[in-house]
Amino acid sequence: MRRRATDYRRPVRRRFSHWICALLGLFVVAVLVLFVVHHNHNEDRVEHPVHEDDSRMERVVHEKLNLTEEILSATSLSRQLAEQMTLAKAYVVIAKEHNNFHLAWELSSMIRSCQLLLSKAAMRGKPITLEEAESIISRLSSLIYKAEDAHYDIATTIVTMKSHIQALEERANAATVQSTVFGQLVAEAFPKSLHCLILKLSADWLKRPPLQDIANERRNSPRLVDNNLYHFCIFSDNVLATSVVVNSTISNADHSKQIVFHIITNGVSYGAMQAWFLSNDFKGSTIEVQNIEEFSWLNVSYAPIVKQLLDVGSRTYYFGENPNIEPKLRNPKYISLLNHLRFYIPEIYPQLEKIVFLDDDVVVQKDLTPLFSLDLHGNVNGAVETCLEAYHRYYKYLNFSNPIISSKFDPQACGWAFGMNVFDLIAWRKANVTARYHYWQEQNSDKTLWKLGTLPVGLLAFYGLTEPLDRRWHVLGLGYDLNIDNRLIESAAVIHFNGNMKPWLKLAIGRYKPLWERYINLSHPYLHECVTS
């Protein structure tokens, strides 16, 4: 039989081979899918413990951060322990007062156990368990019940705690007063180094007649009354402090030879002050030193303050055993005639038209001669106001319950500072400010309008006659404020060490002291011997 042609044969075997290839392909794909799935499952198994550890750590941190919240929680054991411990402490005090020392000891012992358990809980970051707290809570409850059974009830507890609080407040107040008194004593004390300096300079003044001759010649210098020059005045018995004021003013002046300083001191310091300023060079400036004891016109018949200073009752009022006087007001400077001399400037310098007054605890950092060209708008006193804080309003200095004060002054009027003031002496004489000062001194003879110092009476005498100056002219507080902005200090023309922490004392604020010390003339042999040794 003849075979069919190739084209007409049945392709059975070829179809079978295609199926085999298809099955093999499917198998390979399934293997690949299984491999991928198995690989991903292994990665998940590896990463899962890491996530569990992270979440566990987060829970621990979370517990640590919320431990305080747990103590404050009304349902926590920590809260219960803390409350029992507080109550137990109160009963310890009461038990001791009733001589029940055994109960007090037992309570104290359980309090220590309670504190230890709370400390452990805080260290480990886990809440206190019932097993840990049960014995302490039970024992504390038993002791508290025992205390209550001994008639230490809540009423007794409250009364006792009130008495203890009152006693603690009294002790705190007494400590505050004592600290103020000690601080005041240190502030009033004259350092030995300054005593040494005054003694050495006074000896020079007495031993060297040529110095006295020079001083007598300068008394009649025409520069002392020349209104084309810049006149400054200081009233002080502190030689070193006065020298710093003069030196800092002249060092920062653009034209030092046009500056005239008028210094007034007392009889004790007069020779030392003369010797110091005659034996040192101050860049061609003129310096006059006067003795207040030579002012015969400043007597009892003219000045009420002189009468008050000589009055035994006034001195007893301020420096006797008077509980109504604050320790800070017992400073002798408040009843010093030198301190009140600022109200007699036109009488002391009758030919001058304008003058700048400086306290002896200031340091000048910039040229002050522009003060003389300021327009005071007809006012007498140019000063920096201090009412940025409520404390420096009039009602804080004066007794507004007295109708003499309340009928004439605004209690919210802004206070200002002594220490750096420019005075128009022509306007002063016209307004007769000194007479106003005398009037208020006489009105306050019974010490009911204000307590002490020159600022309260100054606020009255210059009321309506004060021109506010830019704050940068005069920055205060370096004798008590530890936190004055450095930028404010650097921009200030005058910095004022008002307060008890004077820069020449050991209790001076260390941060500010270099600002004062830089103007001390350490080349002077006496200063080196007395101050630096």
From TrEMBL:
Location of this chain's protein in the cell: Golgi apparatus membrane
Alphabetically ordered keywords of this record: Cell wall biogenesis/degradation, Glycoprotein, Glycosyltransferase, Golgi apparatus, Membrane, Signal-anchor, Transferase, Transmembrane, Transmembrane helix
Main location (coarse class): Golgi
GO BP annotations, alphabetical order: cell wall organization; pectin biosynthetic process
InterPro entries in the cross-refs: GAUT, Glyco_trans_8, Nucleotide-diphossugar_trans
GO molecular function: polygalacturonate 4-alpha-galacturonosyltransferase activity
Enzyme superclass (EC): transferase
Signal peptide span: none
GO cellular component, one term: Golgi membrane
Pathway linked to the protein: Glycan metabolism; pectin biosynthesis
Topological relation to the membrane, as annotated: Single-pass type II membrane protein
TM region positions: 16-37
Family, per entry: Belongs to the glycosyltransferase 8 family.
Protein name listed in UniProt: Hexosyltransferase
